[in-house]
Specification:
Layout: H1 3-7, H2 11-14, E1 23-24, E2 27-34, H3 43-57, E3 62-67, H4 78-83, E4 89-92, H5 102-108, H6 116-125, H7 128-137, E5 141-148, E6 155-157, E7 171-173, H8 176-184, E8 188-190, H9 197-203, E9 208-209, H10 214-217, E10 228-230, E11 240-246, H11 247-251, H12 255-291, E12 294-296, H13 300-317, H14 323-355
Helix pairs in contact: 3-12, 5-14, 6-7, 7-14, 8-13
Amino acid sequence: MRRRTVLRAGAAGATAALAAPAIAQGRVEWRMVTSWPRNLPGPGTQAQKVADRITQLTGGRITVRLFAAGEIVPPFGVFDAVSQGTADLYHATSHFWFSRSRAAAIIGSFPFGLTNSELVGWLRFGGGQAQWDELYARFNLKPFLCGNSGPQWTGFFRRELTGPEDFRGLRIRAGGLIGAVYQRLGAAVQQMPVGEVFQALQAGTIDAAEFAGPWSDGPLGLGRVARFYYQPCGQEPSASLETVIHKPRFDALPEDLKLAVRFACESMNEESIAEWDHMNPRALAEMVERQGVQVRAVPEPLVRAMAEAAWAVMQELAEIPDPLERAIVRSIIAYRQQGVEYFGTAYVPTHAGRALQRWG
C-alpha cells in the first residue's frame, strides 16, 4: 500500500456538516470521527470495521458513517467533538487525552504497564469499567474498549542507541505517558498526528518516532528516513483503542441496541490483537527487505533507565489530587503488580521454553 493512499483524506468528507443525527422511521445515522488516516492498517481499518459492525449488528437501525482524521475534525479534536455532541462517536486511543485526564491516558497505555489481557481483566473483573464510565461521564462520554496493538515497538531512530545518554536532547515523536518517561531521560518530546510524522522525520524536525508496530508503521514509510527500528522492550506492553459515544445518545438507545454496540466493540478488541499478531511478522519482513530497515534490541542500560523513569512517573500520578483519577491510577498499579507476579511464574517460562526450539 502506497503511503499517499493511506494518508489521503476524502474530499467529500471535508465539506460534510456535523449536526444532530438524522432520524427516520426509528433509524439513526451516527457520524464516527477518528484520529487515523483513512485505510491506515490497524487503527484506520479497524475503525471502519467497528462502524460496519455496529451497522450490521443493529440491522441498520444505527448506520455509522466514518470520517477519517482531518476530514471534518482534526485528529486530536475528536474527543471534544463527541463530548460536545457535534459528532456521535469517535475511534482513537485514550493516551491522546493526557492533558484532559491523566487517568484516561493510563487506560490507553502506560509504560511497563498492563498487557492486553490484563487490561481486559481489569475492566471486566477488577472494577475498571465502572471507574472508566464514571470518569468519561464527566465529559458526556460513554467509553468502550475496542482494540489493542499488543506490545508497542520502541520506534524508528536515525542513530543507533547505546544507553540512556542517547535520549538527552533527542527530538522524538511519542504519545501519552511514554512521552513523560522520555522527558525524564532528557528528550524533547513532540506529540503529533500520525499523518505528519513522515514529513517531520524527513525534514529533520525530529530525530525519532514511535507509533505502533510493523503492520501499522510500515505504510507510513518511516523506515526510509530513520533506518534503525527498535524492538519492544516492555516500555508499552499494550496500547488500547477506544470507541467512545456521546453519552446522551447512547443512553437514549433501547437495551438491545446498547448491547449490539457493546458486542461490536468487544468483538473488535478480540479480533484486533489477533490481527496485529498475524500481520506484524509479515510486515516486519517486508520493511527489512524493501525499506532497508535494521532491527535492533534496546540496550539493557536504557531499558533499566526507562523503567526507573516510568516508576517515578506512576508514583507522581498515584498522588493526583482528584479522588477518582487517583483511585483509577492506584487500582491499575495494583492490578499490574498481580499480573507481573503471575506472568513471571507462568508466561515467561512458557515463552522461554518455546524459544528453545525453532521448528521448520
